[in-house]
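not sure who needs this but someone in the group chat was asking about superoxide dismutase from Notiomystis cincta so here u go. i didnt clean anything up, its just raw.
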Amino acid sequence: SSSMSLSEAEVQSARGAWEKIYGDAEDNGTAVLVRMFTEHPDTKSYFTHFKGMDSAEEMKQSDQVRSHGKKVFSAINDMVQHLDNSEAFLGIVTPLGKKHATQLKIDPKNFRIICDIILQLMEEKFGGDCKASFEKVTNEICTHLNNIYKEEGW
């Protein structure tokens, strides 16, 4: 009954990989955002608080960056917990996608950027296997978010 393309074994290994990086959700979530803002400075324009920040060090210390990093990781964590239940998974992804599409008007390419940076960080910290086992999850998340954007007329 699942619209997910992940097998039970893939779900389990993805959860194992995610647990490693989620163990330090605030620092790792912050690292992901700082890297995104540094490598893709245009993404800063969506965050009024971060606009004036140019140094990675300054961003790292920012309460707003830290709390948003944690928020991103919490949302992904909720999705990861429901990978084997597509209804519950979509119940998390759908409102998130709608909010980013309609209220925040975030370009959907930014979800792919964030996911790719999470995968990079996983590889750097925990190796290629960790990254590989989470890759399908990021594809699921981005696919579903893109579908929601299409429904919202993007």
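also The chain has seven helices and no strands. if thats useful
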